[in-house]
Amino acid sequence: MRILCLSNGHGEDIIALRIIQALQRLPQAPEIDVLPIVGEGKLYQAAGLNLIGTTQAMPSGGFIYMDGKQLARDIQGGLVKLTLAQIEAVKAWGKQPEALGVVAVGDIVPMLFAWKSGRPFAFVGTAKSEYYLRDEGDWLERKSWWDDRLAVLTGSVYFPWERWLMRQHNCRGIFPRDRITAENLQRLGLPAFDLGNPMMDGLDWQGETQHEELTVALMPGSRLPEAYENWELMLKAIDRLGDQLQQPVTLLAALAPGLERDRLVEGLGFWR
Prior knowledge:
By secondary structure, this protein is α/β, with parallel strands linked by helices.
């Protein structure tokens, strides 16, 4: 009995690894195979897991949220060839008699790969949340005509083609990031479950702070150049927050290995 875990990003790799570790603690634990669609899967390799296909780091660090120039660089770097090879690897894996099912962590890309396996799959959605566009009461102020308008018209932050994959016979469960996203997918007749945000699992404070201190964790992400833009935005927000607080603030940063530390330190210049 074997399970394949697919992920497409550094954060998604971490979430998938936590799921894998929970599966490995089961009394009759399945064998686990992995395929990191983005990056080289160093986290999986360090855990001693079996990679089933080719991996390669792309110039952009990911291929969903980026501009045309980054896409062109990735294509020149072998993105198309890599993607086709990975799809074939997943399809070959699914033909094994011992292949039980697939866990796809991330966005539509690993979900599409999981569907192509031909085996039952579960989708852990880390990239989208209804909170981007609405709260428990109503829709928020529009920021992007295309994304927001389509969500309003179709009734979900997940696009119709994403929900089409969720409706396929081999999709057995969808695990979104939050309650209102899960409830909305359930309202649309999809097999969604609200089990909390997997990105918050496994967080454990190991340091020491004074009781009067406020501790804030900064998590800019791993995709480029978004991570640097997120970092700058976070620092500006903390700077404004600091002006309103009458207590010390301790900042902690969770940084992906691929981020340039010097570039992040430069953003601290206005605090010096």
